[in-house]
């Protein structure tokens, strides 16, 4: 009989140096603090890596780092983080929760900062208040007629191109990465997506003009910046929503104010 | 509901104005370059062209055009400062420690981020340019020539003399390269700002921006550099380029 094979050794994992923004609360001073985390395997998600760090911190009797997450599968829009200067990290078309540690060379240093915008105040550490997005939606991002029960499919014909464009826009999960990535902290991509998803469909027509004016005005009132067409938003958007929606919003706003 | 004039003060309105006034100036720049190419044809051709512009519509034409361009650039500068300096810093009071570039479909780069600085360089240059050419007679002696018993500034002579000075040609060269950068982002951006682009037309507009940036910046560069290098040919009474 052969001797029993030794059980495969638990993978050692790699070490990373993290520079993380720590801030005790809203309106408190904050700063980057450096931590080392061990035992990170390439298949871990970025947030799992932070979980490992937090366990380590709690064991050491230190306060865990606060960060947002919920579904951890790229659909809810709750996770955030600017990783090495890029919102949602280095992987295109991907939320922070779906970024894997294999995207970072073992032993490297990673800087983690919260989404930055006046309209997204930091609540604690890496958690920011994105309720200004809710206010933009509340200004008109809905259809206000009572629609009753679900109608028969195809009883209102919608052209293929319009449907595609509306669906592209409707993919927005409201994460706020577009604002975080924009050099001007503009919310144009989010607002445009929430406007065009309705503007392309028959159900959105009665309030189309009123909606675009109200939502653009609310976006401005909340203190987001203006759009300089850098297109960085499109590149970080986990749902790959294009700046063509911003052009659509500009057309709609122009028409709504020229011929109300 | 918001009126159209009210809408022009919104974040989107500022960009309609930026784009519109920017394109007006691009149009002017194209015309200006084509006109300036008459320098190659010689003293009489260029001075004749200058006189033609000055006497257009019994001399009123040039004032109307100047007022229009001045208004356009005023609106452009006002909104440029508002968008790229005032609103920008207000919207993100605390910046990032590390800034990156997502790559991929991002069009963020030196040209797009430097718009306000290349723009201000153009502004500085425009003032300098007007002092040294248009208002040269206010700041020193300029030669005149007589046509049909009337005295006219020898603008051709002023230009050729300026372009014989290395430092002037140097400044001109640097600013024209910055101007090219401004147009490389500015031209396609203007169409996007006016809401004229979609997924298919955006790459075309980006290409058009490249073409115009190269043509205008190299075009405007070509004249001073040529006149500097071949000053003997240009400084003759007939002037122009003799190969
Ligand atoms: C004179 C001083 C100038 C300043 C201070 C200036 C400033 C700016 C700035 C800051 C922008 C970016 C706006 C944004 O962030 O969206 C811009 C855009 C632009 N500029 Fe200028 N600029 C100047 C002159 C010019 C000239 C002479 C031209 C044309 C020949 C020009 C053409 C454009 C165009 C086409 C745009 C794009 C507009 C848009 O994005 O909607 N600019 N300019
Ligand atoms: S447009 Fe994209 S980046 Fe912006 S909030 Fe929606 S999903 Fe996030
Ligand atoms: S946690 Fe839900 S998208 Fe990342």
Describe this structure in words.
The complex is a heterodimer of chains A (260) and B (243). Chain A is an alpha+beta fold and 260 residues long. Chain A contains 8 helices and 7 strands; from the N terminus they run ββαβββββααααααα. Chain A has 2 domains: 110 residues, Roll (Ubiquitin-like (UB roll)); 129 residues, Fumarate Reductase Iron-sulfur Protein, Chain B, domain 2, CATH 1.10.1060. The longest helix of chain A has 15 residues. Chain B has 243 residues and is mostly helical. Chain B has a single domain, classed as 3 helical TM bundles of succinate and fumarate reductases (Up-down Bundle), CATH 1.20.1300.10. Helix content of chain B is 70%, strand content 3%. A two-stranded antiparallel ribbon of chain B has the order 1-2. In chain B, strand 1 and strand 2 form a beta hairpin. The chains are: A alpha+beta (260), B mainly alpha (243). At the A-B interface, strand 4, helix 6, helix 7 and helix 8 of A face helix 1, helix 2, helix 4 and helix 9 of B. The site of iron/sulfur cluster (SF4) has 14 residues of chain A, from helix 4 and helix 5.
What's the structural domain tally of chain A? 2
Structural class of chain A: alpha+beta
Give the helix level of chain B as a range of percent. Answer: 55-70%
Task: Give the count of structural domains of chain B.
Answer: 1
Quick take:
The complex is a heterodimer of chains A (260) and B (243). Chain A has two domains: 14-123, Beta-grasp domain (Ubiquitin-like (UB roll), Roll), CATH 3.10.20; 130-258, Fumarate Reductase Iron-sulfur Protein, Chain B, domain 2 (Orthogonal Bundle), CATH 1.10.1060. Chain A is built from eight helices and seven strands.
């Amino acid at each position: 009989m052969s001797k029993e094979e030794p059980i495969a050794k638990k993978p050692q994992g790699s070490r990373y140096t993290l520079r993380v923004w720590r801030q005790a609360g809203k309106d408190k001073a904050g700063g980057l603090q450096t931590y080392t985390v061990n035992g990170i395997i390439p298949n871990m998600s970025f947030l799992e890596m932070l979980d490992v760090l937090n366990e380590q911190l709690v064991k050491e009797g230190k306060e865990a780092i606060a960060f947002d997450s919920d579904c951890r599968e790229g659909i809810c829009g709750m996770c955030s983080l600017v990783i090495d200067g890029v919102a949602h990290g280095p992987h295109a078309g991907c939320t922070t929760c779906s970024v894997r540690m294999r995207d970072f060379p073992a032993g490297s240093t990673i800087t983690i900062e919260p989404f930055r915008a006046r309209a997204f105040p930091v609540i604690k550490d890496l958690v920011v208040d994105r309720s200004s997005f809710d206010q933009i939606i509340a200004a008109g991002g809905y259809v206000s007629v009572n629609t009753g029960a679900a109608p028969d499919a195809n009883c209102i014909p919608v052209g293929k191109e319009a449907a595609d464009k509306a669906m592209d826009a409707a993919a927005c999960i409201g994460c706020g990465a577009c604002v975080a990535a924009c050099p001007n902290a503009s919310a144009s991509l989010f607002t445009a997506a929430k406007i065009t998803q309705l503007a392309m469909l028959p159900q959105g027509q009665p309030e189309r003009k009123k909606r675009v004016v109200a939502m653009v005005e609310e976006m401005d009132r909340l203190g987001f910046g203006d759009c300089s067409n850098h297109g960085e938003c499109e590149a970080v958007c986990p749902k790959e929503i294009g700046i063509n929606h911003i052009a659509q919003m500009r057309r709609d706003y122009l028409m709504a104010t020229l011929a109300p | 509901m918001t009126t159209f004039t009210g809408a022009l003060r919104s974040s989107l309105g500022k960009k309609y104005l930026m784009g519109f006034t920017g394109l007006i100036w691009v149009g002017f720049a194209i015309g200006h370059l084509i006109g300036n190419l008459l320098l190659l044809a010689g003293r009489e051709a260029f001075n004749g062209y200058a006189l033609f512009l000055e006497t257009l519509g019994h001399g009123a034409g040039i004032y109307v055009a100047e007022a229009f361009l001045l208004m356009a650039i005023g609106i452009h500068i006002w909104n440029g400062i508002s968008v790229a300096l005032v609103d920008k810093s207000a919207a993100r009071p605390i910046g990032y420690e590390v800034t990156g570039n997502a790559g991929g479909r991002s069009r963020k780069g030196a040209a797009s981020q430097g718009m306000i600085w290349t723009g201000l360089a153009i502004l500085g240059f425009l003032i300098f340019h007007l002092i040294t050419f248009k208002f040269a007679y206010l700041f020193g002696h300029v030669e005149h020539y007589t046509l049909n018993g009337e005295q006219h500034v020898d603008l051709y002579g002023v230009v050729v003399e300026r372009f014989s000075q290395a430092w002037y040609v140097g400044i001109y060269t640097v600013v024209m390269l910055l101007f090219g950068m401004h147009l490389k982002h500015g031209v396609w951006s203007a169409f996007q700002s006016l809401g004229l682009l979609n997924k298919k037309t955006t790459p075309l507009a980006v290409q058009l921006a490249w073409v115009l940036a190269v043509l205008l910046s190299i075009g405007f560069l070509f004249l001073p550099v040529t006149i500097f290098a071949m000053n003997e040919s240009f400084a003759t009474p007939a002037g122009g380029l003799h190969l």
